[in-house]
Design a protein that fits this description.
Number of strands: 10
CATH superfamily of the largest domain: P-loop containing nucleotide triphosphate hydrolases
CATH architecture of the largest domain: 3-Layer(aba) Sandwich
CATH class of the largest domain: Alpha Beta
Largest sheet: 6 strands, mixed
Low-confidence stretches: 224-233
Shape: globular
Order of helices and strands: EEHEEHEHHHEHEHEEHE
Distance between the termini: 38 Å
Radius of gyration: 18 Å
Oligomer: single chain
Number of helices: 8
Mean pLDDT: 87
Length: 240
């Protein structure tokens, strides 16, 4: 079979945004799929809050909320109906209509759209509903796969503010992205992936004036490695 990740090891701490940068086929989505147990590792393990996802998948999934690039919601349901449906599927049966309105306001969906069907929503509006569902799950860890793809500047700005507030709440946030600009604006740690390997990992505070775009281009140009095995260990952690 195709080998996707090579000795990838990292940890995301509570109150931290960890951004994985890389082009198509770099291994970013594969890493996220391992945490979600959508793929079975051939070596090593992906742990969510200390739980190996392939050994205890249901327990691990209870510790993480996931928002994909293309949020899959019900177009004939209203925003509130989607939140209610997915919250109940996740075992959260005690939310009220006011709770749903509050979280939709928090993610920046205008009140006039709360009771409207999603089939007329823009990608950014659907993304806000997906993030609202993730917030309602109240998991200690959040996985985001290309969350800013296709968002206009205002929606992207609102998204960064929301991520910052979730970090302040102590969430461990892992984000895969092509978006270097927004990654450096919001991330605490950035990792550059190429051909299934992490070829650079740095705290943003430790870049010391280095230009992330220049670093990205230099590392990508100089990397000639190939993928070999799936990861030894990867963590999305929260100590709460």
């Amino acid at each position: 079979g195709v080998l996707a990740l090579d000795n990838v090891s990292f940890a995301v701490q509570p109150g931290q945004v960890f951004a994985m940068l890389g082009g198509n086929g770099a291994g970013k989505t594969t890493a996220i799929n391992l945490f979600l147990n959508l793929l079975e590792p051939t070596a090593g393990e992906a742990r969510v809050n200390g739980i190996a996802s392939h050994k205890e998948p249901l327990k691990a999934k209870g510790q993480v909320a996931f928002v994909s690039e293309n949020v899959m919601l019900y177009p004939n349901f209203t925003a509130i109906q989607n939140l209610d449906f997915f919250s109940r599927i996740g075992g959260k049966n005690d939310y009220s209509r006011d709770d749903y309105r509050q979280v939709l306001n928090r993610v920046g969906l205008a009140e006039e759209f709360h009771a409207k069907r999603l089939k007329g929503f823009s990608k950014g509006m659907r993304q806000k509903c997906g993030i609202a569902i993730a917030i309602l799950k109240d998991a200690p860890s959040i996985l985001l796969d290309e969350p800013t793809a296709g968002l206009d500047p205002k929606a992207g700005y609102d998204f960064l503010k929301l991520l910052d507030s979730l970090r302040t709440e102590g969430k461990a946030i892992l984000m895969s992205t092509h978006d270097i600009f927004r990654a450096k604006e919001v991330a605490d740690v950035v990792a550059i992936m190429s051909k299934g390997r992490i070829i650079m990992q740095k705290k943003v505070s430790g870049l010391e004036g280095q230009n992330l775009e220049d670093l990205y281009m230099r590392y990508m140009a100089g990397h000639n490695g190939t993928a070999a095995v799936l990861p030894e260990t990867s963590d999305v952690e929260n100590s709460n």
